[in-house]
TrEMBL record:
Single GO biological process annotation from the record: cell division
Domain of life of the organism encoding this protein: Bacteria
Protein known as: Cell division protein FtsA
Keyword Kinase: no
InterPro entries found in the cross-reference section: ATPase_NBD
Residues in coiled coil: none
Keywords, sorted A to Z: Cell cycle, Cell division
Record lineage: Bacteria, Bacillati, Bacillota, Bacilli, Lactobacillales
């Protein structure tokens, strides 16, 4: 049923978030100001922001791109990578190729 599936997904996501929290704690990254910004398709699951706030204990917000036609967090990483790639110069590309 839908309720059973929802319980399974919720438990798995909480487990994943707890593993992420352990790594963020280890690196002391949760002490940084600003909180956490969720992007990607899973970020729009109902209750995701609230669950992340519960697990991480910091402010969590959902990022929604403001480009017309793609106002969906699932596209956020693709948009940002495209913007980043567009800003690379030939020197950057050569330097990365040498590494």
């Amino acid at each position: 049923t839908e309720a059973y599936l929802s319980e399974i997904i919720s438990a798995r996501i909480k487990h994943i978030l707890e593993q992420i929290k352990q790594e963020l704690d280890r690196r002391r990254l949760l002490d940084l100001p600003g909180g956490i910004v969720l992007i990607g398709g899973n970020a729009i699951l109902p209750g995701m922001v609230e669950l992340a706030q519960e697990v991480f204990g910091v402010r969590v917000k959902l990022y929604v791109p403001n480009q017309v036609g793609i106002r969906n967090p699932a596209f956020a990483h693709v948009i940002r990578l495209s913007e980043f790639a567009g800003q690379l110069t030939e020197v950057n590309l050569l330097a990365q190729g040498a590494i």
